[in-house]
Amino acid sequence: MDPTKSIHVDNLEEAHEEMYRLGWTDGLPAIPPTAKLVNAALDFLGRDPQEVIGEVPPKNRIATVEKVVVNSVMAGCLPEYIPVVIASIEAMLHNEFNLNGIQATTNCISPLAIVSGPVVEQLEFNAGDNVFGGGSRANAAVGRAIRLVLWNIGGGYAGEIDRATFGHPGKYTFCIAENSQDSPWGPLHEDMGLPADSSGVTVFACESPHHIATGSGYILSATDVLSVIADSIATAGSAAMNGGGQVLLVIGPMTAQKLANDGYDKQQIREELHQLARKPVKLMKSNKFLNPEHPFHWANFIDQNDDDAMIPALRTPEDLLVMVAGGWGSGSGFNAVCHGWMQAGGLAQTRPIELVSS
Amino acid sequence: MPEIELYSPVGEEAPRATGIAPFPELGGSKIAFLFNGHVSVLPFWKNLEEEIKTRFEPSDTVTVIKPNTFSPAGPSTIEDLADVDLALVGVCA
C-alpha cells in the first residue's frame, strides 16, 4: 500500500484507530482528514493543491499545499490559520535553520512558532496569560499542525530518526503570540527585517521555557531585574554557554513596562545582558560537552588558562531575541527564557503572513 | 464500499539520484577525514586515522571538523575537499 494515498474507512471510530495504526499521529488523537474537510480548506486557500512548499527533512518528503492542508486539518486548524502554518514551514526550510539537524539531534529542542502583528488579533491567537499553555485554538492548532508536518512529511519520528534524549513537551505543539498591546517596543518581526505594521511568524528552535520571577516589577531597579534574568541565561550546561547561538527572552508586560520606564529599549537590554550573562572559565572548563578545538567552543575567543576570565553566554548582543508576551501577574515581574541549539541550527527565521481575503 | 475517505498526511519522497560509485584504490591517494569533532570519539577517530594511514599509505591526508552531528557539511567544506580521492565521513552524538 502506498502510504501517501488516501484510505477508506467505514466510520469515525475506525478512522481514529487507522490513523494510529498507520502512524499518522505521535500519540495524541487527531481530526480525521476527511475529503470534505480537506477540500473545503483547499477551496478556501485557492492555491494549487500540488504547489510545492519544499522538501522537509530528514526524509526529504515533498510538502505540497495539499499535504500541509491535510496535516493542518488533523491538527484542528481553521482554514484561516493555514497561511500561518505554510509561512512557518517556509521559514523552517531556510538553510540556517538546519531542520535536518533539528529533527534528529540528541539535544532537546523543538521549533517554536512566534506569531506577531495584526494577525494575532485577527485570528485570536493568545499572547497573554498562559501564552505557552492551553486555552487558545489558534496557538494549539497551528503549533500542532507544524508538528504533524514535521512528523508525517518530514518523517522525524520519535525513537527512529528523532533521537532527542529527553524529547520536549513542545513536540506536541509549540506556538505563541507576541503581546503587542502591552509592549512598549516594536514587534519581533520588525527586528527580523519585516515592516513594523505587517504580520509575521518567526520560527526558532529552542528548549522549553524557563520561568524567571524577578520580584516586584515596580520597586526593583532595571539592573536588578536584568541581573536575575542574566543568571538564567548563563546557565552552565545550557546550549548558549556550551556553544553560543541564540536565546529567546520573553519579557512579561510588567517587566517590560519597568524596563521601558527606566529608559531601556530592546537594544539596550541586549547589550546589558550580553555583559551580565557570563560564567567564569574555572566553572566552564569542567564542562567537556564540546572539545576546545570545536568551532563553537568558547576557547576560540577566551583564554582557557585564565580561570577568572568571564565567558559570555550571548556571544554577541544580537544573539538575544527579545519579545513581550504573557500576563501581567500580580506584583512580580514574570518572564521566560528559551535557550536555542548553539550555533548548530534553529536560528530564528521570519516570514510574512498573508491572510486569505474573504 | 466504506463511506469515509481520509486523505493521507504522508508526503511523497523527493526523487534522488541512485547508484554507488565504485570504491577507489586507497594506496597513494589523498584521503580526507571529515567528522563532527564530538569529544566522545576523539580517541577513536585519532586511532582510525592512524590505522588508515599505516595500512593504506595514502599520499596525503587532510582532517576537517564540521560543526554539528547530523547535518551535511557546508558548501565551503565540500569545496575544500574537491581534490581528495576519498572522504571518510563519521559522526557521533
Please characterize this protein's 3D structure.
The complex is a heterodimer of chains A (358) and B (93). The mean pLDDT of chain A is 95. In chain A, strand 2 (52-56) and strand 3 (61-64) form a beta hairpin. The longest helix of chain A is centred in the middle third of the chain and has 17 residues, at 137-153. Helices cover 32% and strands 18% of the residues of chain A. With 358 residues, chain A is of the alpha+beta class. Chain A has helices spanning 12-21, 35-45, 65-75, 82-92, 99-104, 119-122, 137-153, 188-191, 222-233, 239-243, 253-261, 266-276, 281-284, and strands at residues 7-9, 52-56, 61-64, 110-116, 175-177, 200-206, 210-216, 247-251, 278-280, 310-312, 320-324, 332-339, 349-352. In chain A, helix 2 crosses helix 3 and helix 3 crosses helix 7. In chain A, the strands form four sheets. In chain A, strands 5-4-6-13 form a four-stranded mixed beta sheet. Chain B is α/β, with parallel strands linked by helices and 93 residues long. In chain B, 23% of the residues lie in helices and 22% in strands. Chain B has a three-stranded parallel beta sheet with strand order 3-2-4, covered by helices on one side. Chain B starts with a strand and ends with a strand. The relative contact order of chain B is 0.27. The model of chain B has no long low-confidence stretch (mean pLDDT 81). The chains are: A alpha+beta (358), B alpha/beta (93). The interface between A and B is large, with 56 and 27 residues.
What's this model, at a glance?
The complex is a heterodimer of chains A (358) and B (93). Chain A is of the alpha+beta class and 358 residues long.
